[in-house]
């Protein structure tokens, strides 16, 4: 317990670290500024912006901003990128409530009841409850990361290659269970991602694999490139299909009275609590993350409500629960990354990229070798949440004005920003073309109802998995039973097998489909 | 009457799907042929178009069947890469294309999706066929790609099978305008950024991308494009310190 406070103290110390800034135009005068607070603010604001704007997601944004962090100190860079992820969860709800289009995949369900509330003239309370729920969930998740961080790191140190491999298998199976649609398709997407990750040089022998003597492929496909193609360009092309002018029935009346009534608060408190718990759990699980958390918590609220027919007609629980859940999940998904070095979703995979850019190898040793980095990031999350709730509600008007920017002007701008972003990662024009090709691949995947998220997870975990598999088999001298004879590894694999069987069983499958079809009816 | 009409309609669709698969089966060969045309103008190194054409044609028509028969007869001679491509990639897909003619496809979305994934996996199997396999109990460079390639072939086949057995959505509608202009804009950006610099490239790419929808109003787009270009020209090289050429090379000199 004392350790916890000590660590958090260290973290806040890092965030509030003041440096003196003396630009030339002040003629020798110095101003005290805290770079990390500034980064946190920028991250939170950019995150809210992409959350509000439909048609540009967090994955594409983080990928786009990766090169920007080259010039920053590592702590500041990671604080900013983390801010984008949870900031987007706040922003997404604004669009969902006011326009009935989800600004972000995580707030699809918020639109159902949130927009109804807005139509009834209660947009203010809906926005306020969404923000309060998000803030509460953010605080709880921050504490959870701090509490779970150290013990999980100790556990991770007991992991050998066999355990790591089994853990990643479990993570990929989770991704399958939690993915939308057909199980077979989700597994196929993961294996496709694993295959893509093999392009480039072999880690042990250095042999060039599937690179066709193209020098640009010798280093492998860049993760940011593929992510930008599949999540950025493909999304734009898909949106153009539907016609650039999306039907935006923006709530026109002025938003008055942000404060929720006493009844609103009483109704939403238990929903916020449940959403936070569910979101925190689903966030830690690999393959989970914020999207599934919001869907699951909405379904849960509807199930246990005394009068389920209220849902879809402006029930405040339908806003409170998913908004708390997605924010909690967005933050707890940092736990596997910081303690085990395994990214549980695509955004976390990009964080791995950001850490690698700054020479940090993610894994259990980070917490011991660079405690200031880890605890600084954790502390910044709490501060970021505080900033978001203070800044965001007054700024709703500005966000709404941004929503009036027509898509026909927005999409070419996003294309250019993405292109410059990818180009500047390696100063390589080929990367831009590759991202374009993956944009087409992503468009094709969407048309055939394949989920791109498991593909990216497979691509990220591929090299780690192969390395640990080979190492484990080398140590056991080629004996495959090592994965079953080591107790920890056997348990992990057993859970994975159990989950896979459960998903295939018809009864559970129907339940799982129910969670996802919630938004469609 | 209605029944026969319906039947002939599905038969027509099946033939077009089968023809599509046949094209897919020789897509890598066609790609290499198109690519090789560049060597005439001295771009890149590689085989000339004539060599590519003859080599692939003989591989597809003569060498591969010969190798297939030879393999059955127990004759294991080292096959060339082109023959392997025909054997590993093209032939299985030709077989699928022929089988497609005799199937009733219940969900085109799943069936075609599964087969294309299978093709990708077969291609990966071919691409990793020159890599070393298992050495005793330790993995070679090619072991993992072959393992996952094989798995993906099986999964693709499974998805295609669900498309045959269970009802599902038909092929989704593809638009051409959005993808085309966005892609042209991206490719133009990639080719022009080095010689022409940020200012010209970003502005031109913006306008090309804007053609992706018929709702674009040009005056508006030109103003926004100019502002965006100015913003990018200030943000990336100056504020963020990322080195990038600003103006066309011939003007800067």
From TrEMBL, chain A:
Does Protein transport appear among the keywords? no
Which top-rank group of organisms is this from?
Bacteria
Q: What is this protein called?
A: Tripartite tricarboxylate transporter permease
UniProtKB keywords: Membrane, Transmembrane, Transmembrane helix
Q: Which InterPro entries match?
A: DUF112_TM (IPR002823)
What residues does the DUF112 domain cover?
Answer: 37-457
Task: Provide the transmembrane region boundaries.
Answer: 7-27, 33-53, 65-88, 126-148, 155-177, 183-200, 271-298, 342-361, 373-399, 430-446, 488-508
Q: Which organism is it from?
A: Bradyrhizobium hipponense
From TrEMBL, chain B:
Asked if Transmembrane is a keyword of the record, the answer is yes
Domain (DUF1468) spans 112-245
Write the signal peptide boundaries: none
Q: Could you tell me the keywords of this UniProt record? A: Membrane, Transmembrane, Transmembrane helix
One protein family per Pfam? TctB
- Is the Membrane keyword given for this protein? yes
- Which stretches are transmembrane? 21-44, 50-72, 84-105, 111-127, 148-166, 186-209, 221-240
Show the InterPro entries listed in the entry: DUF1468 (IPR009936)
Q: What is this protein called?
A: Tripartite tricarboxylate transporter TctB family protein
Query: Mind giving the lineage of the organism this protein is from?
Result: Bacteria, Pseudomonadati, Pseudomonadota, Alphaproteobacteria, Hyphomicrobiales
């Amino acid at each position: 317990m004392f350790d916890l406070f000590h660590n958090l103290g260290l973290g806040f110390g890092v965030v509030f670290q003041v440096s003196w800034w003396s630009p030339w135009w002040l003629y020798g005068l110095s101003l005290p500024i805290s770079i990390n607070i500034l980064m946190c603010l920028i991250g939170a604001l950019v995150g809210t912006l992409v959350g509000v704007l439909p048609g540009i997601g967090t994955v594409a944004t983080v990928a786009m901003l990766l090169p920007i962090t080259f010039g920053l100190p590592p702590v500041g860079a990671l604080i900013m990128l983390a801010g984008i992820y949870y900031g987007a969860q706040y922003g997404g709800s604004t669009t969902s409530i006011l326009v009935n289009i989800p600004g972000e995949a995580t707030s699809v369900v918020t639109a159902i009841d949130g927009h109804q509330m807005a139509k009834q003239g209660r947009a203010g309370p809906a926005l306020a409850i969404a923000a309060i729920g998000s803030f509460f969930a953010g605080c709880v998740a921050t504490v959870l990361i701090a509490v779970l961080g150290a013990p999980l790191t100790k556990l991770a140190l007991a992991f050998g290659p066999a355990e790591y491999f089994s853990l990643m298998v479990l993570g990929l199976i989770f991704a399958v269970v939690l993915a939308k649609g057909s199980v077979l398709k989700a597994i196929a997407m993961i294996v496709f991602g694993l295959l893509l990750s093999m392009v480039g040089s072999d880690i042990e022998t250095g042999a060039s694999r599937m690179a066709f003597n193209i020098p640009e492929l010798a280093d492998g496909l860049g993760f940011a490139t593929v992510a930008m193609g599949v999540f950025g360009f493909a999304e734009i092309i898909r949106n153009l299909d539907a016609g650039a002018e999306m039907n935006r029935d923006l709530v026109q009346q002025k938003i008055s009275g942000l404060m929720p009534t006493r009844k609103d608060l009483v109704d939403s408190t238990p929903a916020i609590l449940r959403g936070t718990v569910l979101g925190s759990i689903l966030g830690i699980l690999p393959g989970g993350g914020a999207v599934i958390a919001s869907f699951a918590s909405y379904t849960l609220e509807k199930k246990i409500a005394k009068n389920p027919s209220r849902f879809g007609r402006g029930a405040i629980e339908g806003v409170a629960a998913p908004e708390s859940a997605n924010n909690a999940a967005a933050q707890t998904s940092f736990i596997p990354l910081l303690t085990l070095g395994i990214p549980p979703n695509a955004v976390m995979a990009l964080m791995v990229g950001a850490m690698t850019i700054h020479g940090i190898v993610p894994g259990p040793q980070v917490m011991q070798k660079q405690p200031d980095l880890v605890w600084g990031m954790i502390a910044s999350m709490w501060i970021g949440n505080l900033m978001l709730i203070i800044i965001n509600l007054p700024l709703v008007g500005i966000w709404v004005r941004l929503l009036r920017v027509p898509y026909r002007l927005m999409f070419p701008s996003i294309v250019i920003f993405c292109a410059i972003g990818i180009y500047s990662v390696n100063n390589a024009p080929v990367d831009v073309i590759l991202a374009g090709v993956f944009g087409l691949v992503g468009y094709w995947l969407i048309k055939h109802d394949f989920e791109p998220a498991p593909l990216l997870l497979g691509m990220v975990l591929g090299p780690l998995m192969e390395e640990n598999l080979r190492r484990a088999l080398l140590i056991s001298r080629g004996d495959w039973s090592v994965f079953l004879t080591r107790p920890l590894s056997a348990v992990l694999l057993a859970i994975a097998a159990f989950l896979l069987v459960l998903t295939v069983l018809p009864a559970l499958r129907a339940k799982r489909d129910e969670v996802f079809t919630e938004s469609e009816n | 009457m209605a029944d026969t009409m319906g039947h002939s309609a599905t038969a027509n669709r099946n033939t077009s799907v089968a023809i599509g698969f046949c094209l897919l089966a020789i897509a890598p060969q066609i790609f290499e042929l198109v690519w090789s045309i560049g060597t005439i103008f001295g771009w890149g190194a590689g085989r000339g178009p004539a060599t590519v054409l003859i080599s692939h044609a003989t591989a597809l028509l003569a060498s591969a069947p010969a190798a297939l028969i030879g393999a059955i007869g127990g004759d294991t001679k080292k096959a060339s890469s082109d023959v392997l491509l025909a054997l590993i990639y093209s032939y299985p897909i030709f077989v699928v294309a022929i089988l497609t003619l005799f199937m009733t496809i219940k969900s085109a979305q799943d069936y075609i999706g599964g087969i294309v994934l299978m093709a990708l996996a077969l291609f990966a199997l071919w691409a990793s066929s020159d890599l070393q396999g298992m050495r005793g109990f330790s993995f070679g460079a090619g072991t993992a790609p072959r393992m996952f390639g094989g798995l993906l072939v099986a999964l693709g086949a499974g998805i295609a099978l669900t498309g045959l057995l269970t009802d599902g959505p038909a092929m989704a509608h593809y638009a051409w305008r959005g993808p085309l202009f966005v892609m042209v804009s991206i490719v133009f950006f990639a080719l022009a950024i080095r010689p022409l610099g940020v200012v010209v490239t970003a502005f031109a790419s913006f306008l090309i991308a804007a053609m992706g929808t018929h709702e674009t109003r040009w005056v508006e787009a030109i103003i926004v494009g100019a502002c965006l270009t100015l913003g990018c020209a200030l943000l990336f090289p100056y504020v963020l310190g990322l080195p990038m050429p600003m103006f066309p090379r011939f003007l800067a000199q």
